[in-house]
């Protein structure tokens, strides 16, 4: 295998580049990186960083009875001391608006969405609104302002 | 045209900058680091023969490990290498645990692949030309280690051949990146094939 030894120590040339590019195209097409992988990694890091509890999806359920083309417009999550209802308004596409209600107003809410992170203002009923310029994954980080010892709550990411 | 093997602004440097910013208190820098390196880590995990679900679990575990040990990584410049070596080790451990594949992580082992191929090998629709089919056939004759290495390098930033190769434990010549044995074997194998006319 003298040819291999000779080639091994040689510098990369244009032929190598073409081979690597063709190989890269085949691998990317046949085995693409899963959509949403980086978002799921970031979500796991957020939960870890906050020592947070992940809220459970209460509603809609069960998903099986819905037609594949149904657009879900409201979703409910629950944590140990908290319930969150989110309603999605996508009538002004591509803009999206979420209206949220929390079971207690004594929390701070940071929304992680396709435009980045934003701290939202709650009114006295625990209601807030937030707009996004495009589709993407959204999750909420909710901290209890009254009692810093209660673990923050993070909602699982939803596609809007 | 990009300079082949140029290390300037390669993935290793970008990763190091993000990690340094993160340690200096920039919370969003971790997010940029995840965007930059996750695809390469996922490829590395898949290269060990893991299915999609297990590969994703390994990638998440490595990120959590980095988060927990961020203060203990002495050299920010080495963060890409830390991530890729950790991914490779965990992926092989997971592959051994599921006992479906034999470890083939020894540089001296030049035999053909003993790792079960990923379940979604390219279909006819992906291999669009005779040259691609020929290339893929010769690629399949390489050792599992070489296949994994070349898959990661080929799907990464091409100018970053040197950075990626170094991060994956392949020596890079002092005068610049050399082909290394894996690419040399593939190329020699293709050259010896009379039906091979090259790719454009």
Automatic annotation (TrEMBL), chain A:
This is Uncharacterized protein. The lineage of its organism: Bacteria, Bacillati, Actinomycetota, Actinomycetes, Micrococcales.
From TrEMBL, chain B:
SUPFAM superfamilies: Sigma2 domain of RNA polymerase sigma factors, Sigma3 and sigma4 domains of RNA polymerase sigma factors. Keywords: DNA-binding, DNA-directed RNA polymerase, Sigma factor, Transcription, Transcription regulation. One of its GO terms (biological process) is DNA-templated transcription initiation. It comes from the Bacteria. GO terms for cellular component: DNA-directed RNA polymerase complex. InterPro entries: RNA_pol_sigma-70-like, RNA_pol_sigma70_r2, RNA_pol_sigma_r2, RNA_pol_sigma_r3/r4-like, WH-like_DNA-bd_sf. Pfam families: Sigma70_r2. Residues 33-98 form the RNA polymerase sigma-70 region domain. Residues 96-127 are annotated as: Disordered. One of its GO terms (molecular function) is sigma factor activity. PANTHER family: RNA POLYMERASE ECF-TYPE SIGMA FACTO, RNA POLYMERASE SIGMA FACTOR HI_1459-RELATED. Belongs to the sigma-70 factor family. ECF subfamily. This is DNA-directed RNA polymerase sigma-70 factor. It comes from Flexivirga endophytica.
């Amino acid at each position: 295998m003298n040819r291999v030894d000779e080639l091994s120590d040689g510098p990369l040339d244009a032929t190598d580049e073409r081979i690597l590019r063709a190989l890269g195209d085949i691998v990317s097409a046949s085995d693409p990186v899963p959509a949403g992988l980086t978002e799921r990694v970031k979500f796991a890091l957020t939960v870890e960083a906050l020592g947070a509890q992940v809220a459970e999806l209460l509603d809609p359920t069960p998903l099986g009875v819905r037609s594949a083309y149904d657009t879900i417009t409201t979703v409910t999550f629950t944590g140990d001391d908290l319930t969150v209802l989110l309603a999605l308004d996508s009538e002004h596409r591509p803009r999206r608006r979420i209206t949220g209600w929390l079971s207690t107003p004594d929390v701070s809410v940071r929304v992680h969405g396709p435009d980045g992170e934003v701290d939202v203002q709650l009114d006295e009923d625990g209601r807030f609104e937030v707009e996004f310029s495009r589709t993407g994954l959204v999750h909420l980080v909710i901290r209890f302002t009254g009692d810093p010892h209660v673990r923050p709550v993070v909602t699982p990411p939803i596609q809007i | 045209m990009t300079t082949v093997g140029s290390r300037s602004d390669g993935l290793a440097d970008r990763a190091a900058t993000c990690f340094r910013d993160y340690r200096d208190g920039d919370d969003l820098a971790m997010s940029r680091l995840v965007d930059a390196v996750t695809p390469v880590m996922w490829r590395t995990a898949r290269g060990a023969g893991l299915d999609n679900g297990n590969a994703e679990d390994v990638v998440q575990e490595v990120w959590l490990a980095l988060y927990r040990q961020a203060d203990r990584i002495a050299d920010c410049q080495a963060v890409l290498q830390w991530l890729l070596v950790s991914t490779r080790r965990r992926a092989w451990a997971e592959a051994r645990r599921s006992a479906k594949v034999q470890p083939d992580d020894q540089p001296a082992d030049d035999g053909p692949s003993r790792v079960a191929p990923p379940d979604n090998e390219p279909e006819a629709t992906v291999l669009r030309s005779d040259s691609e089919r020929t290339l893929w056939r010769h690629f399949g004759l390489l050792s599992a280690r070489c296949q994994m290495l070349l898959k990661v390098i080929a799907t990464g930033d091409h100018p970053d051949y040197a950075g990626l190769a170094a991060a994956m434990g392949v020596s890079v010549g002092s005068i610049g990146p050399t082909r290394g044995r894996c690419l040399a074997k593939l190329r020699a194998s293709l050259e010896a094939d009379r039906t091979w006319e090259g790719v454009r």
